[in-house]
Amino acid sequence: MTRKRDISQLIELREKGFSYRKIGGLVSLSGQRVHQLLTGYGYKRSDNLYQFLRNMVLQRDSSKCIRCGSKENIEVHHLDGDSNNSQLNNMATLCITCHHNLTDLQK
């Protein structure tokens, strides 16, 4: 249950309001495992799941900075500053300039 298509199915069910436990019951996983898969908790940036989530953020944000609209030198930023928290609502596309400016403001 780590193929991209399978993760997409989990994401769709979650967006429809299904609980992690309910999704787990539908796909024969524990609710905790579904939560781990969907949040990316504990995944390293080199992991396939992290890369998949990163690509989903880029696609959602049309591969442009959400602050200035630039499509040059884009990166994915963890809004809460916790790189282990790879929930889609905690990730946003920023250009390198806005990313650095935002990171400096958060210090």
What key attributes describe this structure?
two-stranded antiparallel ribbon, 5 helices, 2 strands, mainly alpha, 2 domains
What does this protein look like?
With 107 residues, the chain is mainly alpha-helical. The chain has two domains: 1-39, no CATH class; 53-107, no CATH class. It is built from five helices and two strands, in the order ααααββα. Helix 2 (20-27) crosses helix 3 (31-39). The protein is elongated, with a radius of gyration of 15 Å.
Number of helices: 5
Helix/sheet category: mainly alpha
What strand line-up does the widest sheet have?
1-2
Number of domains: 2
Coarse morphology: elongated
How would a textbook summarize the main sheet?
2 strands, antiparallel
Instruction: Specify the helix fraction band.
Output: 40-55%
- Taken as a percent bin, the fraction of beta residues is 5-15%
Count of strand segments: 2
Our measurement of the CA-to-CA distance between the termini, rounded to an integer number of angstroms, reads: 38 Å
Contiguous runs where pLDDT drops below 50 for at least 5 residues: none
